[in-house]
Write a structure and sequence with these properties.
- The protein is of the alpha+beta class.
- It has 19 helices and 41 strands.
- The strands form 12 sheets. A 9-stranded antiparallel sheet has the order 6-7-8-9-18-13-12-11-16. A 7-stranded antiparallel sheet has the order 1-3-4-10-17-14-15, with no helix packed on it.
- The longest helix has 21 residues.
- The protein is globular, with a radius of gyration of 26 Å.
Length: 791
């Protein structure tokens, strides 16, 4: 079958590639192999475009799934055999694996410790290339070179075979992949000699827990460049020769060929979460005339354009690699779930149709892990240079609110997959509003934000915050020690309290503040007063004796047998030492409550101690390695803490510690990437590095009525940023060097800056922000007027 490249598609590729040498250099600084030990299912997907539905990647262990539903699975740098190339990689979504082989037909992937027991193949990483938009590897057992690339909704494969009379391409669709859970239904069939279609349905663990009537459907329609000599089928029951369809668990097809030396066979696979027809329509719309090479060119040009929106300069090549790999993960982490037609997956396998609800183009519907912690990284990055994705996120959540009545923190095909049992969507929406991102129905958005903070009647379990009634009644969430395990349900939360009572109290106080500021901006004074009172809930659990956030019972007494380093008891994925600093909505209030000297001494000693373990869990390869520590950069609850010195009169310590975290927690190795095997949730830790390396941050996540930007220690001598409003901001750091971490002076557009912060709307006007750096702290700069912390 001949595939041609149209003039319009070629013009598009040339247009996208028109970035010159600097754009190409940006691509060269991305290393997708960083952090690929103990990485999550959606982490390593090089053959994709930003926020694409098609995210193709090799899998070393994907068919094993994982017992907890979220753990590391997919591609692990410590494993040396590949079992297939998988198309779908999202939070709780995985499926449709292809694998080329030669020789005796095997229809099971085989075990890691016994590669010959199945069709998996050994490979050598010296024969592997992973770049944004492209992947290539030599499969040693078969002498086959496999290449992958993608458009938004179409995956491309190119397999270069040796001469062989028994060459195969296995289309293995009926087995669990990654976080997807068990397959509940599957079907695949050859439509004609060169086209294949099918679907797979799964029931992931987090759907089962949080939205039990839900389901996850994945559909595909594929085009093959060469008709196979014969086709066979297989299921869990075994192989059936000369059969062109298969259904049920373990379903798949095998395409059989007699190949000549260096013969190339290409496949294009349209994907959809709504129907086979829409998968085909996506293929025709995006890739009807594209060859593999042309798709790769366009994909990499897209990455060059998007990564190039922030161009950094400086002599430290390693920092550039950290920066652009972090930005790559930030732009890769989440993925669209809507089709080119605007069709999107609704609850329970239904199909909806997106409509534009505000100015600008029709939004995309997104799948997303929880936004827990995302207001300290990904939303700030979106608001800086990628506002269309912040708008897509808000519009997705508002569509779910219309369809189901509640926001959903984590979402997979409209199903609730919260994971953390709280819900920060309202805060993220309020932050978007205050940042000027408003391409949605603002009144509906406020209605949904208010409901998220205050309503509890008939609340859907998967929407989280099942203890809202308790929080609004007591002003804090009462601790229930018996809820660690209650009738078989771990870490229970209900209208009377929660096992994670303290972290919930702190989180709800913060999100109530965000909703209060949105209410005030919209002139809703009564709501503002109710919500701002709730935002001070943190004061109810601060023990005045030990100056720590301590779990409190419903009768108002603090819990006994209290160990501030003990994780989980009262605190989700953390402990009291970490969570005591969780008052981002009112840092000045926390400083006053602890006393400035005590606050600064404790905070500084916290970082001095945690520096000895790399600001996380040391070299232990586990997502929760740091939850017992005094500080844990490998998880969300701590990510604002290093910026709090700006509020306590010692901004030079924010400069010192944020730079040291960038230098030591973040690495450039497959194992030491984001800590050692820490939990890089869909680009959050990468985003934190990006904005911190630029020297920009807001502990409040832009939830103030007039948001601010705190200033830190810019890492690069020059950063040229294309702002989301089409203006340009240049950040210069004079005398920047590894040891010159301290700001001596700063100016914006020629005017001296006396403060370690400025209003965000001033920054977004663009121009030149210039820092002068030095090796010793200037303890007079930025100390006179702290960032506003008004209530």
């Amino acid at each position: 079958m001949k595939m041609t490249f149209t003039a319009s598609a070629w013009s598009l590729a040339l247009l996208l590639a028109a970035g010159g040498a600097s754009a190409q250099n940006v691509l060269n600084y991305v290393n997708p192999n960083i952090g690929t030990a103990h990485s999550r299912w959606f982490f390593y997907t090089p053959a994709a475009v930003p926020y694409g539905m098609a995210k193709l990647a090799p899998s070393t262990n994907g068919h094993y799934g994982n017992a907890s539903g979220w753990e590391a699975v997919g591609y692990d740098t410590r494993q040396n055999s590949i079992e297939g190339f998988v198309h779908f990689h999202e939070w709780q979504v995985g499926g449709v694996s292809f694998m080329p082989t030669t020789g005796e037909l095997r229809t099971q992937p085989g075990d890691l410790d016994k590669p010959a027991s199945g069709y998996r193949s050994h490979f050598d990483r010296k024969n592997q290339v992973a770049e944004p938009g492209y992947y290539r590897v030599l499969l040693d057992d078969y002498g086959i070179t496999a290449e992958l690339t993608a458009t938004k909704r179409v995956g491309f494969h190119r397999y270069t075979f040796p001469k062989n009379d028994q060459a195969h391409i296995l289309l293995d669709i009926g087995n669990k992949q990654g976080e997807s859970g068990e397959v509940t239904g599957a079907s695949i069939r050859m439509v004609d000699a060169t086209h294949v279609e099918g679907f797979v349905s799964t029931y992931p663990k987090y759907v089962k827990t949080y939205d039990p009537a839900g389901k996850v459907n994945m559909y595909f329609f594929g085009e093959i460049s060469k008709a196979p000599a014969s086709v066979g089928a297989f299921t869990a029951a075994g192989a059936q020769l000369n059969t062109k369809s298969a259904t049920g668990k373990g379903a798949g097809l095998v395409l059989n060929y007699q190949t000549t030396a260096q013969e190339k066979i290409e496949l294009k696979v349209g994907l959809s979460y709504t129907s086979i027809a829409n998968a085909k329509a996506n293929l025709l719309a995006e890739a009807k005339s594209l060859t593999f090479d042309q798709a790769r060119t366009a994909a990499q040009a897209t990455w060059q354009r998007e990564l190039g929106k922030i161009a950094v300069e400086g002599p430290d090549e390693q920092n550039k690699t950290k920066f652009y790999t972090g930005l790559f993960h930030a732009l890769l982490g989440r993925g669209i779930a809507s089709d080119v037609s605007g069709a999107y997956p609704k609850h329970g396998g239904q199909v909806g149709q997106l409509v534009a609800s505000g100015p600008g183009p029709k939004p995309e519907f997104m799948n997303t892990d929880a936004i827990w912690g995302g207001y300290w990284n990904i939303t700030q990055l979106w608001a800086l240079s990628y506002p269309e994705w912040y708008g897509n996120y808000v519009n997705t959540q508002l569509q779910v609110y219309r369809d189901k009545g509640w926001f959903g923190d984590g979402l997979v095909n409209s199903e609730y997959v919260s994971g953390v049992g709280t819900n920060f969507v309202g805060l993220a929406v309020a932050g978007a509003y205050q940042a000027g991102i408003r391409n949605y129905d603002v009144n509906l958005a406020y209605q949904a934000v208010r409901a998220n903070e205050l309503k509890y009647r008939n609340r859907a379990f998967g929407s989280g915050k099942m203890d809202v009634k308790a929080f609004t009644q007591y002003g804090y969430v009462p601790f229930r020690d018996d809820y660690k395990e209650y009738k078989g349900e771990w870490y229970k939360t209900d209208s009377t309290g929660a096992y994670f009572a303290n972290s919930h109290t702190l989180e709800y106080s913060y999100s109530a503040f965000a909703a209060a500021q949105m209410a005030k901006s919209l002139g809703k004074q009564a709501d503002y007063e109710q919500l701002i009172k709730l935002s001070n809930g943190w004061k109810n659990i601060l023990n005045p004796q030990n100056k720590l956030m301590q779990p409190k019972l419903a009768d108002g007494t603090f819990v006994g047998n209290f160990n501030p380093f003990e994780p989980w008891r009262g605190f989700q994925e953390g402990n009291a030492m970490q969570y005591t600093f969780y008052v981002p909505q009112n840092p000045a209030g926390l400083v006053a409550a602890l006393g400035r000297d005590k606050f600064n001494n404790r905070l500084d000693s916290l970082f001095t101690a945690s520096a000895k373990t790399g600001f996380g869990g040391g070299k232990e390869i586990d997502a929760f390695a740091g939850i017992k520590a005094i500080y844990n950069h490998g998880n969300q609850p701590c990510l604002h803490i290093s910026w709090l010195f700006n509020f306590s009169g010692q901004p030079w310590l924010t400069q010192k510690w944020t730079r040291q975290i960038c230098d030591e927690f973040y690495g450039t190795e497959p194992i030491h990437g984001y800590g050692y095997g820490q939990d890089e949730d869909q680009g959050q830790l990468g985003s934190w590095y990006v904005i911190t390396a630029l020297g920009l941050f807001d502990v409040k996540g832009f939830t103030d009525g007039r948001p601010i930007i705190e200033l830190g220690s810019p890492m690069f001598s020059k950063a040229t940023i294309q702002l989301g409003n089409k203006k340009q901001l240049v950040i210069e750091a004079k005398n920047t060097a590894k040891q010159n971490v301290y700001v001596q002076a700063a100016e914006l557009n020629g005017q001296p800056l006396a403060n370690c912060w400025l209003y965000r709307d001033e920054l977004m006007q663009g121009g030149r922000l210039v820092f002068t750096m030095g090796p010793q702290p200037n303890k007079t700069w930025g100390t006179k007027t702290p960032p506003p912390s008004a209530q």
